[in-house]
């Protein structure tokens, strides 16, 4: 109950921050000029705010986006606010493995380090359809796309860690919706089965896959002795363009649970905190949740 009270009231937790804190507030004083971060879906919503705040703190931000017009507009917006911001944009369609491979090749060709990989982009509650590669589109975009991208860039991250001595971070934007997956979990043998398809459970399935991906990658990196942490984060409830396929339902939900919802600067707080802070107590292979608890007094699920 104390966690719920702090969430609703915005009272700060032990860190000094609470559910009403913004990403800009929790990163105050952070110098990220020696860091390079890649943000997928950085042209709008949570990704845009994450890119803005990281750039404000001096981080060199690479925005991966399908809509290059929107991505360049996002870049220009950030640079107008922070003239010294270092922002680059590259085309990335997570629904296409060809696009993902091309993006990775283009990024590697820049010969940049990569300290932080933020797997943020996603789609939600879509009617049944298949990706360009013939995979159910939510699973393809939310999980397979980020899984492939991470694998393609992992050597770059490992080399960056060796050269810089700075801990690398991979963060998967997950969701508490993983609890509302299909009853038997991920339908590995029925990913593309239209019969019995539920757009909401399919979304939960993709978010569960994000968590399992983070857990297993973290385990393997620990075994290798690589100083890269991998975690999945549920940022909280927020109305974003992701809800465009279920706008009426989400508005109804928000009406009855308005006190739990956050705005974009607030919902980005936990993500930015884990990406730029040195956290000796931060354990890999965890999902950090800040819906039912105030920020930084989180429920943690294995």
Automatic annotation (TrEMBL):
<dbReference type="InterPro" id="IPR002347">
    <property type="entry name" value="SDR_fam"/>
</dbReference>
<comment type="similarity">
    <text>Belongs to the short-chain dehydrogenases/reductases (SDR) family.</text>
</comment>
<protein>
    <recommendedName>
        <fullName>Short-chain dehydrogenase TIC 32, chloroplastic-like</fullName>
    </recommendedName>
</protein>
<dbReference type="InterPro" id="IPR055280">
    <property type="entry name" value="TIC32"/>
</dbReference>
<dbReference type="Pfam" id="PF00106">
    <property type="entry name" value="adh_short"/>
</dbReference>
<dbReference type="InterPro" id="IPR036291">
    <property type="entry name" value="NAD(P)-bd_dom_sf"/>
</dbReference>
